[in-house]
């Protein structure tokens, strides 16, 4: 009787060991991930600033320093010059800016923007001071671009910043009207019941400068130190679409 019980227990133990070994071998053979990667199965979520819904199996790879594309007019040109003069590390930044430009120029450089954002970038755009009457056209164009060339890019619209004497070409009242319309548009879109996150966010540098003060000789463009302040404030407001605050995550579908 004792021998039979011992034999049965031994067979049960050997069977469990065999099953466990088979499971380990199967899992090891089926894994396609390399070091530093994790997998997700049957997930459905929206990264901040993205319109892409992930529902397939993905491998996730961490990449440092999400690239930023800055688009703008002479004020953006001035900011880039100030940052270069201060030896700021701009290795992960691209600037697409030109003096005196506005809505029409933005429509004409569609191919250039598409090429610069062929791999996902954070888009930071600061335009409007040269054609404040084009607010409806800007909104229409931003809606078009977020559905096409900016589809996978988080977009940050920076407010048109203030002016003061001796500038006479525009007024702060005009700027405030432009900014409020743009802000209302973005907030309305973000508050909608859509299942997808609206990929545009608003950065209110206008209020930041009015409250904290700024330096400007001609009343329209800013001193190097003010441009540097604007740049730092923008970076403080930018949220990385996926990540831990140190970089970003690139997701690639895997069907194996």
Describe this structure in words.
- The protein is of the alpha/beta class.
- It has 2 domains: 1-31; 67-239, Rossmann fold (3-Layer(aba) Sandwich), CATH 3.40.50.1110.
- Helices cover 42% and strands 16% of the residues.
- It has 8 helices and 8 strands; from the N terminus they run αβββαβααβαβαβααβ.
- It has a 5-stranded parallel β-sheet.
- The longest helix has 29 residues, at 2-30.
- The two termini are 52 Å apart.
- Mean pLDDT is 76; it is low at 27-63 and 242-256.
Features:
three-stranded antiparallel β-sheet; elongated; five-stranded parallel β-sheet; 8 helices; single chain; 256 residues; Rossmann fold; 2 domains; 42% helix; alpha/beta
Question: Quick summary of this structure?
Answer:
With 256 residues, the protein is α/β, with parallel strands linked by helices. It folds into two domains: 1-31; 67-239, SGNH hydrolase (Rossmann fold), CATH 3.40.50.1110.
Please, how many helices?
8
Calculate Rg over CA atoms.
26 Å
- How many strands, which pairing sense, and closed or not: the largest β-sheet? 5 strands, parallel
List the strand order in the largest sheet: 4-3-5-6-7
CATH hierarchy, class of the largest domain: Alpha Beta
Shape: elongated
Task: Kindly report the name of the CATH homologous superfamily of the largest domain.
Answer: SGNH hydrolase
**Residues in helix, %:** 40-55%
Q: Count of DSSP E strands? A: 8
Distance between the termini: 52 Å
Question: Judging by the overall fold, what is the CATH architecture of the largest domain?
Answer: 3-Layer(aba) Sandwich
Poorly predicted tracts of residues: 27-63, 242-256
Strand proportion, as a percent range, falls in: 15-25%
- CATH fold-level name of the largest domain: Rossmann fold
Total domain count: 2
- Rounded mean pLDDT is 76
């Amino acid at each position: 009787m004792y021998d039979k019980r011992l034999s049965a227990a031994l067979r049960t133990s050997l069977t469990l060991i065999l099953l466990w070994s088979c499971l380990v071998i199967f899992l090891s053979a089926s894994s396609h991930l390399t070091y530093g990667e994790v997998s997700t199965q049957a997930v459905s979520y929206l990264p901040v600033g993205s319109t892409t819904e992930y529902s397939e199996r993905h491998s996730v790879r961490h990449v440092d320093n999400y690239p930023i594309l800055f688009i703008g007019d002479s004020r953006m040109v001035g900011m880039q010059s100030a940052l270069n003069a201060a030896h700021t590390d701009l290795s992960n930044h691209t600037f697409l800016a030109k003096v005196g430009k506005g809505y029409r120029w933005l429509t004409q450089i569609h191919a250039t923007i598409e090429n610069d954002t062929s791999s996902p970038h954070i888009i930071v755009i600061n335009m409007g001071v040269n054609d404040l009457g084009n607010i409806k056209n800007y909104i229409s164009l931003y809606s078009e671009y977020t559905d096409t060339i900016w589809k996978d890019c988080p977009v940050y619209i920076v407010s048109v910043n203030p002016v003061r004497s001796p500038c006479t070409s525009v007024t702060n009242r005009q700027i405030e009207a432009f900014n409020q319309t743009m802000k209302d548009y973005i907030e309305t879109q973000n508050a909608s019941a859509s299942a997808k996150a609206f990929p545009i966010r608003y950065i209110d540098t206008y209020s930041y400068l009015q409250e904290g003060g700024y330096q400007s000789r001609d009343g329209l463009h800013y001193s190097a130190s003010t441009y540097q302040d604007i740049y730092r404030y923008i970076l403080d407001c930018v949220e990385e679409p996926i990540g831990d605050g140190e970089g970003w995550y690139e997701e690639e579908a895997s069907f194996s």
